[in-house]
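User: quick one, fold this
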Amino acid sequence: MHIQVNTDNNIAGRDDVTRYVQGVIESKLGAVSNGITRIEVHLQDQNAEKSGPEDKRCMVEVRLENRQPVTATNTADTIQSAVIGAVDKMRNILDRELGKQRARR
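Assistant:
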């Protein structure tokens, strides 16, 4: 499973953010990682230097073997909250999709 983290120019501490994102993904999606080939995470500060409610956006795209990619997006006040929210949404999507796949077998 390859994890790629992309940030816009307004995200500070890219290396720390990348390590944080990889840790969250490995802890929350590790149990369902068998069919995952690649995960792309896109982080964005929508208001740049201005602060505001829910101005941090995280989009997670998961590529599964022999399937179309699935995405989940979350906005929050902090990068950490946006990442956790998006990864939690992705876990729910993967549980549902992989559950359907297992039911067909």
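User: anything notable?
Assistant: The mean pLDDT is 88.
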